[in-house]
Design a protein that fits this description.
Elements: H1 2-51, H2 55-62, E1 66-67, E2 70-71, H3 73-86, E3 91-96, E4 101-105, H4 118-127, E5 134-136, E6 144-154, E7 157-165, H5 169-224, H6 241-295, H7 302-333, E8 342-344, H8 346-364, E9 367-371, E10 379-381, H9 383-399, E11 406-413, E12 417-424, H10 458-467, E13 474-478, E14 482-490
Parallel strand pairs: 9-11
Antiparallel strand pairs: 1-2, 3-4, 3-7, 5-6, 6-7, 8-10, 11-12, 12-14, 13-14
């Protein structure tokens, strides 16, 4: 069914393009016919006028139409009838010096003008017939015809003009029939053959040109129907290569987003399961001891009551910490937290954080030492979020460093950044567990069992905070020798 749809879609595209191409061919054909007719007619008129430009002058040379300023009827009639016998399609008119018609050889009743315009006649005489000029048609007012003209001179005095219309009515009757036959041959025969040939060539060209496009359409349909592995084949120089690359990138992005959604769904399920498990433990402890206090309220001595209340308090503190860290991590993962970067001296921040942990470290019998340079330049970061990173790293080191161990906070000055390192001499991390340390609720890490107050979220929070700073947390560890975390902060650019 899918293949049938794809085939139908490709064929439909081919025929749509073919129909468009045919319509364009017909339009071009019609335009070509109109242009050919106009050009051919203009060419014929100009050729005919140039070939017969000297007819009027020949008439004057054969006879003198005016004798002593008077029109010679006999002479002019003879020459006019002679010219009509030689070329019956022409019409000859004798004009006075103002363009008035004095005599003519044409059916009398059909001559409707008494005078013709002299402007075209003077232009024709000046250009000697080298330029196509249209003059008045005495038989058809408002229409123009090609002509030949010559001035009639007696000495230096202009007596009038000989005005010869080269395409008379008889010519037009014959020419009209011939012209119809020519148009029929041009449009019905020649043009039809050209259209058919062009259409065949065009269809073949469209078939090859759209071959790649049909492949693209088929691939898009497959992707639309659920084949997420469908990709358009791209080759350098191939038609629609840019479209194919864009589609493949879009498809990869969509598939990546789908995978991310699946991953997020798995994480959500894992989170719900882990939260349910971890909340159940302190809630069960709280519930159990409160129930014991209520049942044995009259039998418990003050020391036992204080012990139970202290256990309840510790459980509520753990519950509070867990909820707080869950809320913090969820905001980081949903990108609700944006770092407010500002310049500050990281060495001062490190010293303040170390001072806060000195008393806690002494109680546990752990030594905290710092190797911090006082010449570090200003760094650019969110000071409160970086403080949170340092606290989590030191908390993590304290939890897994046994009594008598050492925690070292160190800085290394690089070319464009400062490296901050938090190391301990604790139990270390098994090599197979290192890639998963920054995951939420990394239960696989056996170290979690060493500290019942651990929520399993501290390092995940560290990683997310550094990610929104475009920084990376690095980890090295050896079992029973210790662990080291490090990251870099860029110097402030003034």
């Amino acid at each position: 069914m899918s293949e049938a749809k794809n085939l139908k879609g490709g064929i439909s595209l081919f025929w749509k393009l073919s129909a468009t191409f045919l319509a364009l061919l017909v339009m071009v054909g019609v335009f070509h016919i109109i242009l050919s007719i106009s050009t051919s007619e203009k060419y014929y008129l100009e050729r005919n006028q140039r070939l017969n430009a000297n007819i009027a002058q020949s008439i004057i040379q054969e006879v003198k139409p005016f004798i002593d300023g008077e029109l010679s009827e006999t002479a002019t009639d003879d020459i006019m009838h002679h010219m009509m016998a030689v070329n019956p399609s022409i019409e000859v008119y004798l004009l006075d010096e103002e363009g008035g018609i004095l005599n003519h050889v044409a059916p009398y009743k059909k001559v409707k003008l008494t005078e013709v315009s002299l402007d075209p006649i003077n232009e024709f005489i000046e250009t000697k017939g080298e330029v196509c000029v249209m003059g008045d048609d005495p038989r058809k007012p408002g229409e123009e015809q090609i002509f030949s003209a010559a001035p009639i001179m007696e000495g230096d005095v202009l007596q009038g003009y000989v005005y010869v219309v080269l395409a008379g009515e008889d010519y037009y009757e014959v020419a009209s029939n011939l012209w119809s036959d020519y148009i029929t041959a041009l449009g019905g025969g020649t043009m039809l053959a050209i259209l058919i040939a062009a259409l065949i060539v065009g269809l073949i060209a469209i078939w090859f040109i759209t071959r790649n496009l049909r492949g693209i359409v088929d691939t898009v349909r497959r992707f639309q129907e659920g084949d997420l592995d469908a990709r358009i084949e791209t080759k350098s120089g191939k038609e629609f290569n840019t479209l194919g690359v864009a589609f493949n990138e879009m498809a990869d992005t969509i598939v990546g987003n789908i995978e991310n959604l699946k991953s997020m769904e798995n994480l959500r399920r894992e989170l719900v399961g882990n939260v349910s498990h971890d909340l159940r433990t302190p809630l069960a402890v709280i519930h159990g001891y409160i129930e014991t206090l209520m049942i044995k309220k009259d039998d418990l001595n003050p020391a036992e009551r204080d012990k139970y209340l202290n256990i309840i308090l510790q459980s509520t503190e753990k519950l509070k910490t867990m909820v707080s860290e869950l809320f913090e991590l969820s905001k980081l993962e949903s990108k609700q937290v944006q770092p407010k970067k500002e310049p500050f001296f990281v060495n001062e921040l490190l010293q303040d954080v170390v001072q806060k942990y000195l008393i806690l470290a002494r109680k546990k019998g752990v030594l905290i030492q710092s190797v911090i340079s006082n010449n570090i330049e200003l760094v650019n970061a969110d000071i409160s979020l970086i403080e949170r990173v340092l606290q989590n790293l030191i908390d993590n080191a304290l939890k897994f460093t046994p009594e008598g161990g050492t925690i070292t906070i160190k800085t290394n000055e690089l070319d464009d950044a400062v490296e901050i390192q938090v190391s301990d001499t604790g139990v270390g991390i098994p090599e197979e567990q290192i890639p998963f340390v920054f995951d939420r609720y990394h239960i696989g890490d056996k170290r979690i069992g060493l500290d019942k107050s651990n929520t399993g979220l501290g390092l995940a929070i560290v990683k997310k905070i550094l990610e929104i700073h475009d920084a990376t947390i690095r980890l090295t560890s050896k079992l029973n020798q210790g662990t080291s975390f490090s990251f870099e902060l860029p110097y402030h650019q003034a």
